[in-house]
Design goal:
Elements lengths: L6 E4 L3 H12 L4 E4 L12 E3 L2 E3 L6 E3 L4 H7 L5 E2 L7 E5 L2 E5 L12 H7 L16 H9 L1 H16 L8 H4 L1 H10 L2 H10 L9 E4 L3 H13 L3 E2 L6 E5 L2 E6 L2 E5 L1 E4 L3 H5 L6 H5 L3 E13 L10 E4 L9 E3 L1 H4 L8 E9 L11 H16 L7 E13 L4 H13 L4 E3 L9 H16 L2
Parallel strand pairs: 1-2, 1-14, 2-10, 7-16, 14-20
Antiparallel strand pairs: 3-4, 5-9, 6-9, 7-8, 11-12, 12-13, 15-18, 15-19, 16-17, 17-18
Bound molecules: flavin-adenine dinucleotide.
């Protein structure tokens, strides 16, 4: 079977699986080689005592133009999140603010002066030449210093566990910079996009995997059948004739194309110079995920998705997610589950705490945010020591340099969350682009 593979995918995390399933959907013959026992990579769902804790991706928006077809063709099961997922909160300056569309303007999260400046966004002229700039600089330019600082912090914390002063607006949140490029303003661009939405296409809604993301990954792997191989840690990828030889202690495989779906630092160990050195450049920020479960009487979890923490929150948690409120099946009946995210680019030192200390910190800070101190009977800490890739200023130029280097090495590609988008939908978008070019005859 493997002899006839036309694309080898190294790494069976969500990134690699989506590429392989998309190649298969388009009629190609992928072969996934995964180092671990199971598919899914960092999205290794924990199931224990009736709790389901997602240590990485836990939800995604559907329908999505590229993700939906891949999941449907693989027969993967997903379910909509509970209605509570619409309710989003921000904790800052000792107060929990609920943000709900235009009504958010009525909250005290931003001062009257800050709101007046924010309302001028549609008339702020875009730059004549777009330069790579930090997320905070971009948001402050558009919405003024107060709202800009808050907005950039929330986006950086919520998606990258990143530092708003270092993340690149264009690399980390291209949808925003594209709105400015196309419509001259985020507000005007957003309204225009809503008006132009094709009729009959439902609005994207939060979805979850009922058996967790590890279950979803297992379904994608099962769809690939014998073309998904676990316990196959690749140690080298090298040019061989007009294709690529992929080797490990488990054996050797050859195909005309190879997609290395590993974060840059891991990919660097497999390929020769000068690409290897290039892959060593980007940074990643380690995080820890803390789960707190207990009875409904002992663990407070408001109806909602969760709370992100602002720049003046005074707490170290980057976000506190109300897991059992928005996602069915994440806690036993009459029990609740909260999930806190710690660390990231701006606070790596918190990871020096022991698991017990992290749990204590999460309990204390959840108490400050929710007004009731949780008394969990089930706790879990998951550390992502390899870290979340950081798309800092310079990332776009780095991707261009990587593209230029690989353009000379026909058939070598990189995929996954280290490159062109960090969430599952971005992985699907890139998988679709790769799938199209790899199956073009
Ligand atoms: C705390 C947190 C919360 C998140 N929340 C969300 C969310 O709500 N929604 C969302 O869309 N995304 C979210 N994400 C991001 C999402 O989880 C990632 O984008 C995605 O899981 C990354 O998948 P990947 O395949 O690129 O990488 P990985 O998961 O790292 O997969 C790489 C795979 O390659 C394998 N491997 C490594 N070395 C080798 C080798 N030499 N040979 C063969 N195989 C190898 C590994 O075992 C692994 O399976 C979150 C991430 C984190 C950390």
């Amino acid at each position: 079977m493997s002899e006839s593979a036309d694309v080898i995918v190294v790494g069976g995390g969500l990134g690699g699986l989506l590429v392989a399933c998309e190649v298969a959907r388009r009629g190609g013959r992928p072969l996934v080689l995964e180092a671990g026992h199971a598919a899914g990579g960092v999205a290794a769902t924990i199931r224990d005592s009736g709790y389901l804790l997602e240590p990485a991706a836990g939800s995604f928006l559907l329908p999505h133009p590229q993700l939906t077809p891949i999941l449907e063709s693989a027969g993967v099961s997903v379910v909509p999140a509970n209605a509570a997922s619409h309710r989003r909160f921000v904790y800052d300056r000792g107060t929990l603010f609920e943000l709900a569309g235009p009504a958010s303007l009525a909250t005290g999260l931003v001062s009257v002066r800050g709101k007046l400046r924010m309302l001028r966004e549609p008339w702020v002229k875009p730059p004549t030449n777009r330069a790579d700039e930090s997320l905070r600089s971009f948001f402050e330019r558009r919405f003024g210093p107060e709202m800009g600082r808050i907005g950039a912090t929330l986006m950086a914390h919520g998606v990258f566990a990143g530092d708003p002063d270092r993340l690149s607006a264009g690399a980390a949140f291209p949808a925003f910079t594209e709105l400015e490029d196309k419509a001259g303003s985020l507000v005007r661009g957003g309204v225009k996009r809503m008006r132009e939405r094709p009729k009959g296409v439902p609005r994207p809604k939060v979805h979850v995997a009922p058996d967790g993301m590890a279950g979803l990954a297992a379904e994608l792997a099962a769809h690939l059948g014998a073309n998904f191989r676990s316990d196959w840690p690749v140690d080298q990828v090298r040019r061989d004739g007009d294709g690529w030889k992929v080797s490990s202690a488990a054996g050797e495989e050859w195909a005309p194309s190879v997609v290395i779906a590993l974060a840059p630092a891991a990919a660097a160990r497999l390929v020769p110079e000068p690409v290897s050195a290039l892959l060593g450049e980007p940074s990643a920020a380690p995080v820890a995920v803390v789960g707190l479960g207990g009875t409904s009487a002992d663990v407070p979890a408001p109806a909602g998705f969760g709370a992100l923490t602002g720049p003046d929150s005074g707490v170290r948690v980057l976000g506190l997610l109300f897991e059992s409120s928005y996602a069915p099946g994440r806690a036993p009946a009459r029990h609740r589950l909260l999930k806190g995210i710690y660390g990231g680019a701006a606070d790596p030192s918190v990871l020096a705490l022991t698991d017990g200390q992290l749990v204590d910190l999460a309990v204390e800070e959840a108490g400050r945010i929710l007004g009731v101190i949780p008394q969990p009977t089930w706790t879990r800490v998951v550390r992502h020591s390899q870290g979340i890739p950081q798309y800092n200023v310079g990332h776009l130029a780095w991707v261009d340099r990587l593209d230029a280097a690989t353009a000379e090495l026909s058939g070598l590609h990189f995929a996954g969350w280290g490159y062109r988008g960090i969430g599952v939908s971005s992985l699907a978008k890139h998988a679709s682009q790769l799938g199209e070019s790899l199956t073009r005859s």
